[in-house]
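Dear colleagues,

I hope this message finds you well. In preparation for our joint manuscript, I am sending the NACHT domain-containing protein (Reticulomyxa filosa) sequence together with its predicted structure, so that both groups work from identical material. I would be grateful if you could confirm receipt.
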Amino acid sequence: MNGLLLLLDGFDEVANEIQNNTNLQSWLQHCTSNENYSIIMTSRPNAMCPYLNNPRMLNVIGFQSQDIQNYIRAYFKNNNESNVLMKKLNNNRSLKLLSHTPLYLRLFFIFIK
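The corresponding structure tokens are as follows:
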């Protein structure tokens, strides 16, 4: 309620800079140790941050092509809406690639409805 949610997307892209900057390390340690703060960091698996105490890690595995189709069909009650989204994904290579990530695929639903 009175806390802070901090989202650090692409942490692996700045991990080396933070590794070399003690001020940033201290700030991040402060944030992670504060009970009123919630922090979500996304990263490729290779990012290391040994200065954090016991971070909880979650490995998100993306959808396979058939999973995408099944998820879309299960979400939409109207088969026409699922066909519209599938067509858009199949016609746009970037969207199709992004749709393998569950969060992005879920966001696409918002724009189709």
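For the figure legend, we might mention the following. Helices lie at 15-19, 22-33, 65-75, 79-91, 93-98, 102-112. Residues 79-91 form the longest helix (13 residues).

With kind regards,
E.M.
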